[in-house]
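Regression report. Comparing outputs from two consecutive submissions.

Submission 1:
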Amino acid sequence: MSLQSKGVFEFGPFRLNPAERQLLRDKMPVPLPPKAFDALVVMVASRGRLLGKDELLKAVWPGSFVEESNLAQHVSILRRALRDGDDGCKYIETVPRHGYRFVAEVREVGDFREVTHVAPTADASPGSSPGPPAPADGGKGPEASQGVDSRHRFPTLNYAVGAPALVLAVLIAALAIMERPRGSAADPLRSLAVLPLKNLSGDPAQDYFADGMTEALITDLARIPGLKVISRTSIMQYKDSHKRLPMIAQELGVDGIVEGSVLRSGDRVRITAQLVRGATDQQIWAESYERDVRDLLGLQDEVSRSIAIHISKEILPVVSHRLATSGAANPQAREDYLKGRFFWNLRSETGYRKAIDHFQSAVTEDPQYAQAYAGLADAYALLGSLPDSAIRDAAMPKAREMALTALKLDDTLADAHASLAFVEMHYEWKFHDAEGEFKRAIDLDPNYSTAHHWYAYDLAAMGRMDEAVAEVKRARVTDPISAIINTDVAEMLYWARRYDEALQQARATIEMEPNFAHAHRVLERIYGEKHMFPEAIAEGERAVALSGDDVWMLLDLASTYALAGQTAEMQDRLMRAAKMSPGGVPPATGTTAELYAALGDADRAFDVMEVLYRRREGGLILLNVDPRYDGLKSDPRFQRLLQRVGLPRGATSH
């Protein structure tokens, strides 16, 4: 079916009008990103039929290469919008490893020409009215061709001589102006979200450039002392969103929002941006800039001068220095760096390897480009955290080397300090050295949620669970809707034996992101420790289904069945894990050791842990805190293993 079909479909309380690009629930509009809307049209039109992932990707992103994870993200957005399953109605079925099927009953009602009155939403500002439906070309109407998004009230301006970095300078100036004495008509902005800059080039291959510029703005703004800036993970969920700004500000808990667009054409780039007060949708500042992307050094000088004029002396020494040292002299190096960050943010082995290629190209072009070395450190560190000992042994030392190279060139890069700390914690087991690096990263960039997140693991390894819980909650402050951070808050509470709090947090995370398998796995473990085995098994089965029979999810479920005394089911899940594993044998993991511990076979549990020790498996840093190891702690072999890993002997988190 064509995405431009004139047919109208009804299912449950919903009415889908592809021609008008409109989805209504009980006659009220349901906002959807353009590609999520397109995916819904394809699935509804093919209702009852299994749509393979490749088929969906080709239908929604014709002629473009798009990672499979992008499709999964848009399906997750659809499920949240449809409240899939919340009210007992199921719309989209996942067929593990294959694709999706729209399973609800659908009625096609033909052409729909009437004009539907849309009432203002509750968060609309006084006097405002809802805009027209998004154009059928996905938002690339006449306004887009002029570099203007009609949804965002940018004024018509002459294009000043400036560029992406100059946007940051003027934003900082605007923020400084807003720092008025308390009691004034407008309160100062103390928290900010930079929404994903829109790519107006019409070329999906340029998404990396818009995403990279967004991340650069977030990184630099986050260095301003006293300003809370929401991290990339949370803001990227608003890419292509049609939510009104007050609603976004409320969801993220921020005072101000920066939004804008990027139009890249050859060696020219045009940035249009505005700063808006979140609660009232009041525009504080707006401007457009056009510049040759090769003039990065001149841009840095210009930014520094703007900061010197507009920012207080207390902020100036920190901000100006970091901006002046953050760029590459070579424009191709900067291009390669942005591509590297784009692929690194995909959080997959393929993404890490592509990121390494682009970061390496950047340092080849500009051997003094500190940020590119930091990017290499990040990519190698996360590649080395994957459960493959051969990859790990090659990647982790390389991550350390790249982090040290970056810091030799620029000691103020928070991400390089954090990556070095990650290697020291996760691979070298130097927990106190890692703590020093994590603290340095956080001191340089208090808004860097990844540093807080990883530091929480370091604190947990050292048995300082109250501090670990507090630290992972700090990570959540600047990344409030990150599924993994919210899940890890629950897991840290679980390790601290605060089971009721952990249960509440895990449920809240699943309510926010129902299809996040890892959250169901953590809830499975919490229920297991509370001896609520039917609930634990149900969550484990859900985690396995959502992950597409992931080996580690299957092993976790087998361990839960072992704790519940259901050995036949345990054996079945182990056999399924074996079928999914290379060589037909489940890998040696911490969960395998836990399973043997649950069966009372301490000898085999320690045999597995010896293999993990030789591989320098990162999971061993949690020996002291994971409740499923509690049955082994009285064994002298356990205490000797703690000593070899460098963990405090005899420590508990009770």
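Submission 2:
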Amino acid sequence: MSGLDLMELKIKDIILDSKPKKGKIRAVFSDERAIAESCDESRELYNQSRYGTMMDSGKLQLSLLEALYLLEKKKIEIRASRNKTLDFESFLKKATKIEPNFWIRYCVFKDMRNRGYIIKTALKFGADFRVYDRGIKPGEEHARWIIYPVHEGATLTWYEFAAKNRVAHSTKKRLMMGIVDDEGDVTYYEIKWLKP
């Protein structure tokens, strides 16, 4: 390799190194949510993957589940009161105080996101989550499933089970149960109405 070639390589390295690297999005823990700063990265996160809800101010409001997932993926940095940075464990502890069933719900949320699905809350449907097919964003089409996360040791009465099935049927969605074991692994069961 000639001296000129080496100089060109060094210049290319300097140019590549001088490009700004995407930093973590800064967010603040606020009651039952995290509020991410108004920045291009926040907007990109919302536009590409539909995390959170874009506020009028340009800030991104994230659910606790979304915030913990993005924290685990090292996409955001979350600060609590007194400007203290929260790590995964301290955030999980705060979220579990707010919502005792948080870990079970988080296991299902994380698993579905890792599989490439967009998963959002479904409180207005009387369920925990609504899930969109891969490549579909909320607003483009309706969700395909509603999911109820359940620990493998939990019990449901027939009445509770029938009520969940009725909710899915009345909202024209498929019912899925996300069964979480003690290791945090999730097994899904899709339940359908059958007419004899």
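Expected: both submissions complete independently.
Actual: both completed, but the second showed a warning that disappeared on reload.
Relevant detail on submission 2: Residues 101-196 form a domain with the Trna Endonuclease; Chain: A, domain 1 fold (CATH 3.40.1350.10).
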